Structure formats: C-alpha cells, structure tokens
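Hey, can you fold this one?
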Amino acid sequence: GDVYSGQQTNISINTEVVIKIARSSAEAIALKHKYWILQHLSGIHGIPKALWLGQESEYHVIVLKCLGPSLEDHFKACGQMFSLNTVMLIAVQLLSHLQNIHSSHYIHHDIKPANILTHLKDSLNMLYLADFGITKQYCHPNTHIHIPFNVEIPLTDTLVFASLNSHMGRELSQHDTVPAPSMGTASPSFISKLTIGLNPLTAS
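Sure. Predicted structure:
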C-alpha cells in the first residue's frame, strides 16, 4: 500500500503521524490484522501507537504515531558496524520488548533491523518494534496451551534473519524470535550483523 506523513491536530498539540492506505482487499486484511495486534499490545513499552483504522471511499486506512529512522538506517549511517556498547544497549531493549510481547501470548515473527524503529528524536535509547503483519498468537491467553506443532509451514520470515525452525518449516514459539545466538533456536545473524558488520548467511 501507499504510505504518507501527516499531522494529527487539536487545540493543544500537533502529533506527527504515518498514514498507510490499502488499495486491495489483501492489503486491507493486512492493515486490519496489524491494527488488531497493536490494539492487543497497546500500553506495552516499545510498541507503536495505532491511532485510527477506518475506510475513506474505497480505501482502507490506518494511522500510526510517527517514529524515527530504523535500526537499519542507523547501521548504514555508522558504516555498517556498531560498537559493543551500542549492541548491548540494543539487545537489552529488544529482549525486554520481546519478553513483554511473549507474555501477551504473541510472537513477532519478523525481527530484523529494518523493523526496529527509533524515537523521533533519533536516539537509540528508545527503540520500538514495527511491522506486525505476520505476528501471531502462539498460545491461548486463558489456557496457555501452545498452538499445535506443525511442519512443512512456508517460510514467511525474512530469510537471513529467520530462525532454524522457520527454515525447517516448523511451527514457531517464543524462543524463535529472540535475536541472540545463545538463546533458543533463533538465528545468530541479527546480533552478528550488528557487531561484526556483515551477515554470516550472505558473506562470501
């Protein structure tokens, strides 16, 4: 869909927003899914704020509070390498955000630098997770029973950052979205890329 910038205005304050427009039925379904997920995760630290979902003429529209550049943008601006202190700052925040999402019975499903946004002030001291298009519930909120284990599931994550289980077509759990090489079955490529400046899955 199309993405525009805008402002939400009222008497006391103007808020910068992002306006996403869906032109097809498939895009409209994806917008509704993102909004539904963001509403369920509303109030969790590091989750973008969804301000409105609706329809204008034949288009479906979602309005989100505007955030800053992505971690990928910062990474490129720093010569494709972060200091160890910066990586630690990023990792601690992400682990906290993911723990909160998992406690709400969801897995993000697509953790990568492009889906991690900074505050509008362009600071790495406050990170937000973005793009909940393939986020899913991994266990029942009341019974806490995990979704059934399945195999031969098509890969939907970003290839180079997907966990081993995702590459093998297995149903994922919360362990598969932790972006650290020593935790669960998550791919080590995320943190490796930030620390050594390359992606081990694509390096020659």
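Residues 1 and 26 are 10 Å apart (CA to CA). Let me know if you want another pass with a different chain boundary.
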